[in-house]
Amino acid sequence: MKLIIKNMVSLRCKMIVKSELERMGLTPVVVELGEVTITENITPETRDELTKALLDYGFELLEDKKSILIERIKNIIIEMIHYSEEPPLLNFSSFLAEKMNYDYNYLSNLFSEVKGTTIEHYIISHKIERAKELLVYNQLTLTEIAEKLHYSSVAHLSNQFKKVTGLTPSFFKKMKHKRLIAHENL
Fold it and tell me: Which long-range contacts (CB under 8 A, 24 or more apart) does 6-10 make?
């Protein structure tokens, strides 16, 4: 049986959900971001218990078709930006349409209607958040970050970064460094 779970956005989330399912005596076969396959069919009572257990961790068991589609779109984007090293072989709209087996225009309109933002803006937001993480870790150059996030150039990343945050990547990095020095002086 396949379950769709909202707000599973990291490897830690996957571990928590797997642990919770096992605690309830359920057998997870596959645990992906936002999607779990278990061997059992669950009763309405077990579903209610699972729903309550997941809510304690900020997760939500989804049942309606639109919510499930939106969550799958979000998880594909998160997986692509945060956990995939390889760029999609197709442009993202084709990649998403193929992966979800739906027309991209339908997915795009549904996403905009439900989330109040476009898929493109959602992707950009996540890419900039990921760039901020990588800048804070200070292990990659801006050129390497641009390549890792599949930007066509450092200038393109810098322009989007400034548009979203109001700061240049280098100023953001300096601010982080100054905050660390200030904390050391406490």
Answer: 6/34, 6/59, 6/60, 6/61, 6/62, 6/67, 6/71, 7/58, 7/59, 7/60, 8/33, 8/34, 8/35, 8/59, 8/75, 9/33, 9/75, 9/78, 10/82
At 10, which CATH number?
3.30.70.100
- Residue 170: inside a domain, yes or no? yes
pLDDT tens digits, one per residue of 121-148: 999 999 999 999 999 888 899 999 999 9
Give first-to-last CA distance, the chain, whole Å. 53
Total residue count of the chain as it appears in this document: 186
- What is the C-alpha to C-alpha distance for residues 54 and 155, in angstroms, rounded to an integer? 42
Cβ distance 20 to 56 under 8 Å? no
* Residue range(s) defining the domain that contains residue 16: 2-63
User: Do the domain assignments include residue 93?
Assistant: no
Contact 27, 19 (CB under 8 A): no
pTM over 0.70: yes
Specify the DSSP class assigned to residue 91.
Answer: -
Strands (E), 97-180: none
Q: Which helix (H) or strand (E) holds 36?
A: strand 35-38
